[in-house]
Amino acid sequence: MTRIGYLGPKGTFSEQAMLESLAIANAGQSPTPVELPTVHEVVSAVQSGEVDRAIAPVENSVEGGINQVIDALVHDAPDVHIIGEYVLPIDHSLIARDALEPAEITAVVSHPQALAQCASFLRRELPNARLIPSTSTAEAVQTVLASSEPIAAIAGSAAAAQEGAVTIKPSIADHESLETRFIWLSREPAGPPNDGAAGKSAILFSGAGDGSPGWLLDCLSEFASRGVNLTRIESRPERLQLGRYLFLADIEGRVDVPGPAADAVSGLEAHCQQVRVLGSYPV
C-alpha cells in the first residue's frame, strides 16, 4: 500500500491538499497517510524511503517560496523528484478553546507562514497579543485547546471542526485570494507525458561566471530564444560563501521529452557548473 507523507497533525492545510488532490486523481487506491512533524522531514522521508510519496507546500501567493522545503529539496534530497502539483485556496480563521472577545486574547499561536499572512489583521485587531510560532496550523489548535490561558490559534476551519474548537473570527487573511502551491514528491520521476498534455519542469542552476556581468541574462536567453516561458525564478544561498547563489526556475514544458524546453536546458549547461532537473511533470 502506498505510504504518503504530509505535514501533520490531522487538520493541516497539507492534509487538505493531499485529500483533495487524491480525490481529483481518483486513483482507485487507499493510500496510507503518514503524519510528519516538519516540512523538512516530509522531504527527507521520501529521500530515505520511509514514504513512497509526499506532498509539501512550496510557494504561497503572499509570502513567496517556502524556504525550508526548497532548501531540503536542493541540499538534502538528491534522489527526490517533483511529480505533480496542486494549488489550494487558503482561508484562515481565528480559533480558541472557548468563546473569547479579541481584547481578552493574550497570545496567538500558528505556523510562521500563517502569522505572516494575517499580519495586518493581527496588528489592527490584536496589537498587544504575543505571536507564538508552531510547526503547523493544526498543532497550533491543539496547543490552544490544551491551554487554560486566553490564547488563540490561526488555522483553517477544518482543524477547528476536527478538534471541537470555537471559531472567533473567520477569513482573517490579509488577502482574499490567498493560495498555496503544493508539490508531490517521489523517488521515481513522473511518467511519460500523454500526447498534447501540458507540462511543467522545475530546475536549478548555478556556476561558472555567476559573478560576471550579464551571466544571468545569458542563462535566461536560452529560454527566451526558444520561446520557453519561465513561470517562476528565485535564488537561494549556495551555502559555500556569502554572495554565491543557486537559481531555481519553473518553466513551461517538459524537459524529459524532445522539444524547446529540453533544448533550453541543454543550452543552459554551457553557462553553468550545475544544472539539475528537480522534476518534469504534467499540469
TrEMBL record:
The UniProt record lists the keyword Amino-acid biosynthesis: yes
Pathway participation: Amino-acid biosynthesis; L-phenylalanine biosynthesis; phenylpyruvate from prephenate: step 1/1
Entry's Gene Ontology molecular function annotations: prephenate dehydratase activity
GO BP of this protein: L-phenylalanine biosynthetic process
Record has Transcription regulation as a keyword: no
Prephenate dehydratase domain span: 3-187
EC number: 4.2.1.51
Keywords, ordered alphabetically: Amino-acid biosynthesis, Aromatic amino acid biosynthesis, Lyase, Phenylalanine biosynthesis
Entry GO CC: cytoplasm
Protein name per Swiss-Prot or TrEMBL: prephenate dehydratase
Upper lineage: unclassified sequences, metagenomes, ecological metagenomes
